[in-house]
Amino acid sequence: MNGPLTARDCEAANSVWAWVDKYSITNCCQSLAITCEGGRITRVNARFQQQSGVMSSAIGNLTELSHLILANNQYTGELPSTFSKLTKLTYLDMTMNVLTGRFPTALCSLSMLQFLSLKSNLLVGGVPSCLGSMASLTSLNIGNNQLSGNLPSEIANIRNLTLLDVSNNWLTGSIPSSLQTLEHLKSISLRGNDFENFPFNVTVNGTIFEVSRAGKACHLSHCVALLVCVVFCIL
Questions:
Q1: What's the whole-model pTM score?
Q2: CA 83, 121, 28, 2 torsion: positive or negative?
């Protein structure tokens, strides 16, 4: 079903991505990177599309978006605050762009978001405690940025978290002991920071691992060299 709402979505999408045809609803919904359902844009997968510049605030008008994949582009600056309007978003991948500024706290209001990757950008400042309110998150990857300060204990409020990657930032202080309560955790990476309390024990799928400063996971006296600090595997 096409109509005024689809036309509005196509116009908004054109403001964000110039290659989207705002004058033709048919062309808009048949664009290589765009999926429409029920007359609305629901998915955008534009990885490796050489997109650059600051993202337009018009992104907030795509209120039916569930998946937004813009990894491996050259977006700069900060994500617009209008991201808070994307209340149906479940999957956001902004890996390997050139995003700057602080962590975009507008994302914290996205209660349906399950997958979030801002890995390999240039984000600075602290990791916001509001992440703890994102109850639907199962995967959080903010590694390879320039984030600093303490890792907030509120992250342990994300009870369904299976992957947590904060590696290669400038984080300091103590690793929150509350992370040990994340019973669904399958992968955790803490390496490349300046945490105080290494070694740190964490339970992964019922097995206690020791996370060392060197980025290795040790099960009792048996050390398993890994590329991340802990990765669930069948030993």
A1: 0.86
A2: negative
